[in-house]
Amino acid sequence: MNEFFAYINRMKYINRWGLMQGTHPENDMEHTMQVVMLTHALAEISKQRCGNAVDLEKALLIAMYHDVSEVITGDLATPVKYANPRIKAAFHDIEEVAAEKLLSMLPDDLKPGFEPYLLPETDRREYRIAKAADKLSAYLKCVEELKYGNREFLSAKESIGAQLEKLSEALPELRIFMEEFAGSFELTLDELTE
Prior knowledge:
mainly alpha; Hypothetical protein af1432; 11 helices; about 0% strand; globular
């Protein structure tokens, strides 16, 4: 019996933003769906507007599996994970071991089809796009929380916004998304339908 997909299914039980009081709880599975959609958007912008060669399938699959290790590690809050370089490096190692553990649950003939996405090459544009989409998803969560009057997310929005600004220097597709699409997340339903 192989447990890989049963483990992955448990992403819906991993709550995000553990140290923050949110108006709407978010789990890893919901977050992953948004990251996949944002990755698709960024990859298409990259190809169509920036003239980059992007392997869309690879980018989407990296995005789809980007948080699967959290079914073993849990979601460590960002302020803790990035508190200092040693904690960040140690947690990166833990996430890699967890991804390797998940990969080991697959039959040998299927492992090659999953390994590039569970343990992706971090120097590829597809990886950088998926990571930017992950950060963008966190930013949009902050925008939505602030829209509903939850100032708990104000500092996080500012911090993540600055990180996105820096990322957009190397990824113009991210800057384009921010300029053309991100603002609409601040609108109410009535404003969206006008």
